[in-house]
Amino acid sequence: MNILEAQQISKRYAKHEALQEVSLQIPQQSIFGLLGPNGAGKTTLIRIINQIINADSGQILIKGEKLRPSHIADIGYLPEERGLYPKMKVGEHLLYLAQLKGLKSREAVHKINEWFDRLEISGWSEKKIEDLSKGMQQKIQFIATVVHEPDLIILDEPFSGFDPINANLIKDEILKLREKGKTIIFSTHRMESVEEMCSHVALINKSRKILDGTKAEIKNRYRSNTFQVVHSGKLNGLNLMYELLEEKILENHDISSTIRVSEGKRPNDLLAELIQHVEVHAFQEKIPSINEIFIKEVQGN
Amino acid sequence: MSKISLIIKREYLTRVRKKSFIVMTLLGPLLFAAILIVPVWLTSMDSSETKIISVIDESGLLADSFMQESAGDENIIYTYVKEPVEYAKQRVNEGYQFGLLYIPDFQPENPEGITFFSESSPSLSLVNSMEKTLQSRIRDIKLVRSNISRETLSELETNVDIQTISLTETGEQQGSAGVASVVGYVGAFLIYTFIFLYGAQVMRGVMEEKSNRIVEVVISSVRPFQLMMGKIVGVASVGLTQFLLWIALTFGLATLFMQGFSPEELMQQRTQQISQGLPEAESAQAEMALNVQEALASVDVTGFILTFIFYFLGGYLLYGALFAAVGSASDSNTDTQQFMLPISAPLILSIVTLGAVLNEPNGTLAFWLSMIPFTSPVTMMMRVPFGIPGWELLLSMLLLIGGFVFTTWVAGRIYRVGILMHGTKVNYKVIGKWLFSNS
Predict the structure, then answer these.
(1) CATH for B50-148?
(2) Are A245 and A286 spatial neighbours (Cβ–Cβ below 8 Å)?
(3) In this complex, do A77 and B220 lie within 8 Å of one another by their Cβ atoms?
(4) Do the chains contact at A144 and B217, CB–CB below 8 Å?
(5) Nearest CA to CA, how far is A107 from chain B (Å)?
(6) ipTM of predicted complex
(7) Across the interface, do A144 and B213 touch by the CB < 8 Å criterion?
């Protein structure tokens, strides 16, 4: 089941198109990477989902229902441009934001304390926001995003400002939330996190969606029948039925070659051919990274 | 608890808990008292030094009139000397005395050549008092010449005091133009100050939320309009709290002060004075003090305070929304300036025209200024103590309500776009576009 469905969303600002007929299906319990270069329209789409702005046309469905104000409680949003009231205390600030999401005071206090324990910041309740470091403030913002246990969590660059240890802490929490059945929309420029965490990916460029699907399926689509082989003995100069793209001599005098085979050939066919000429130490299909796909698609357009 | 009341609560509590609020609330009434007392106190400080003035009377007409004068004022001592002017002048120069009053031989019909020498120039009140003494002495001399006694003259003098009574629907109302204008001025200035003070707080609050980027987090939970209204109402409650505390504290202080100065005592004092046959002038003074008190009592204090609160809230809501819109369209303080002028202009106009309104509280200018919602809060405060027809008050209040509904609507449309805009150069054309855009 799709927790969120965007149908033909368009949005125009005074001088430019922000989104043109963008449609997305985001399945429940997925970690959905929303990718795209700066200014592509990601933030506009996220704001429309959060009912901060309205779309000019098209509609959003949450769990099959048309988006309406009560859905605010079902969504947790961590904007890229985020801040807190510097003069407020951590505890009362979180309570305020949780109550704005519709939690009752007692329930909110209970859940906030749970999160304090989980993120190892118990006893921060009475600290003032302005006394916290940026990374610490990010933790508070993360709690504010998820404290009301929304089914859909939208995170815009969630790791910016975190040191690697805290980034891992947050990453683990995101994965735990997913295990509990929550869905996460994840907008970031850090491709290694996408590679590591996302199950689904959509790419938006110049206000249009140019690519979407599961990560595996997309990678499959961009396979180019290219293999990386480490071997001893020269391939160069041999008359092979495969295209040799690149050859690199490694430190131990082994050679690393990039080889493309024609459509319809199996890896074993290549291996069988190679074994006749050289000694093979390593053999691996080259699968494109999300980063490569991103660059290829965005620059190609 | 509904979301807007959560926002109001936060805005209210964070402001009321601030030290500056507590300090201002406690110091406010003291400050008001100080503004009234300090100038009086300073003047009395100023003349506490005893000044010696020598008088050379070559005419011999003045007898001891200046000696009587110095009996009334302990700070100035007059001494008659008989010595050459040059010698006396030198002593003034050397600083032994404050001054020298030289009266040459003159004819009462034509007093010329009377001169006052001093090292530092004398105060206006000193010169006035010397002139008065001379004038009354010369008048006495002339009276004697015309065979009129002083007693006959004081019998001719009558003190007239006009009572003003305005006819209102509720009946005859005794009033005093003087007291009414003071009450009006105070009310008008308070409203003016409150609107600017708390309007600026709304603007700063909005800009703070915008620049530290909390706003996007909050408006993913509430509508921008709710956030704006919550802030405006929250700040208004702070202002109202402060105002009511000021009134309570001022009344408290005033009661303490008045305990030694009640009307009953004044009345008693007056009857005593009359029975003791004290000079007419002093009892007249007491009567005047009593009149002011009666007039103060005649102003409908509760009604005035209620009207004040209505116009304070109405005016504040009207301008507060505009201030919020300005805050949302600006990234920094310098950005706000281009938008502040058109907002401040009507407020300043209403203050500038107060004098004209006071001259004719029911004139055409006063009428229109108290109908236009942008000027009515200040102008009405000036008019209300003089008594105005009920329908005018009602119409003005309705227009004010309409006015703030309108400005709130306009501000809401600017606000919802403005708070998410960063680094855009905003001018009136851009704001116009926001106003008519679909969010």
Answers:
(1) 3.40.190.10
(2) no
(3) yes
(4) yes
(5) 14
(6) 0.81
(7) no
Look at chain A and count its residues: 301
Which of chain B's residues have a Cβ under 8 Å away from the Cβ of A78?
Answer: 217
Position A37, amino acid: P
Q: How many CB pairs under 8 A join A and B?
A: 63
- pTM score, whole prediction: 0.73
Q: Name the residue among B1, B7, B214 with its Cβ closest to that of A84.
A: B214
Q: How far is A68 from chain B (nearest CA, A)?
A: 12
The residue of chain B nearest to residue A12, with distances taken between CA atoms, is B438
- Average pLDDT by stretches of 10, chain B with 439 residues: 87 90 85 69 62 81 68 70 81 79 81 82 80 83 80 77 61 60 84 89 90 87 90 92 85 69 52 50 53 59 85 92 91 81 90 86 88 92 84 92 92 88 77 75
**CB within 8 Å: B221 and A101:** yes
Domains of chain A (ranges, CATH numbers): 2-220 (3.40.50.300), 225-285 (3.30.70)
Mutation target for B interface from A11, A56, A96: give the one with most B CBs within 10 A.
Answer: A96
Note whether B212 contacts A96, CB cutoff 8 Å. no
Q: Where are the domains of chain B?
A: 50-148, 178-248+300-436
